[in-house]
Amino acid sequence: MQDLHSRRLREEFKRMLKTYPPKTSPIKWAIVNNDLHHYKATIKGKENTPYDGGKWEITLDLPPEYPFKPPVINFLTPIYHPNIAIGKTQWKWGSNVCLSLVNWNNLGKPGGWKETITLPSVFEHVEMMLDVYRATGDVDFPEYLVDPNDPFNPEAGEIMKTNFDKFWETAEDWTKTHAK
What we know:
This protein has a single domain, classed as Ubiquitin Conjugating Enzyme, CATH 3.10.110.10. The model has no long low-confidence stretch (mean pLDDT 88). It has a four-stranded antiparallel β-sheet with strand order 1-2-3-4, with helices on one face. The radius of gyration is 16 Å and the shape is globular. The protein starts with a helix and ends with a helix. It has helices spanning 2-19, 119-129, 154-162, 164-178; strands at 28-32, 35-44, 55-61, 72-75. The chain is an alpha+beta fold.
């Protein structure tokens, strides 16, 4: 079992090098203390979002049960987002990110963690969480990216649903204050 685990960790590292080349990738990442269980990354906010111009530092830790259990993700840089907790609030398994892909309660369920999911895919989903846009017409927020109805920051979730302009302004302010 240990050999399978070690081999998977090495494969994931190679996938990260290929998908997010260290010198050219928009996501800057590194292994922490030469331990393939621990990653640190910086994710940039996308243009035309309230996170435009910001940079957020995150950690991604692989549990000993990986790939049978999902990574634990934590934003270290404060961000105003309905699905990212403020401060030290975390799910019972240690993450401050509410994303169905890495929610331990969703193991094997549609949209939840499966052992075939790779680290580049996890980083891509975290990056897409910052792709908040102004919805038009009957378009709602994609459930797996931004879900103000299932918030980890209840204030941000409620404001996003009831006063999107205020949410946008607050998120921009937090970006300027914490992520630049």
